Amino acid sequence: MSLARLSARAPKSVNKEKTKKELERLKVKIGELQNILFAEGKHAILVVIQGMDASGKDGAVKNVFDAVNPAGCHVISYKKPTDLEMKHDFLWRIHQNAPPKGMIHIFNRSHYEDVLIQRVHKWIDEKTVFERFEQINNFEKTLIQNGTVVLKFMLHVSKDEQLTRLKERISDPTKNWKYNEGDITEREFWNDYMKAYDDVFKYCSKAAEWTIVPTDQNWYKEYIISKKIYDTLKSLKLEFPKLPPKTK
Question: Which end of the chain is more exposed for a tag (fewer CB within 10 A), N or C?
Fold first, then answer.
């Protein structure tokens, strides 16, 4: 599969208004099911959100989960590793943030940064890259075997749309705080990132498959993510805990 060949827009057959209405319904349903997930305490959900700069990761987190109970949902945003984190294996900081049963944890960027940006900039060699692929697969398999559902979303933005959004961070005062000069520099490595993502999809889908989300249109991006999360929660056949017979 070649990410560069995939469209970053909704199919023409998709009706925008109907999809937006369905999105609102799905978000409410996610909130209802998440409440049962929290009360039941038998399953955990890990949502991994990856994507190029300006692909809409923050917006996805904010808008898809706006109906959930904050007590049962936690967002972790991964930045450059700290000095302490650098002294450990690359998954050390990740494993600490794995969700306990009853919780949804959302990774805004994730352990995949360690086989994307580090590979593209050649901060690690190819031998280390493929060792990390195996370690990631084993890590995700361990989570799954212990009751965690792992949902991985790659937000696929087109190069032209990314540039438009990066320029908005300069022209729109409400988005100035997002501006980072380095984001423009990273565009020079676009093709390298596309190839690195292709390998991630090829080698890191053993335990948990990726969902590639067209993200040039935010309404469609949020719909695809919401539908996957709703379907997953529904499949768990969640139930509120019942009182012991003697208390009735």
Answer: C
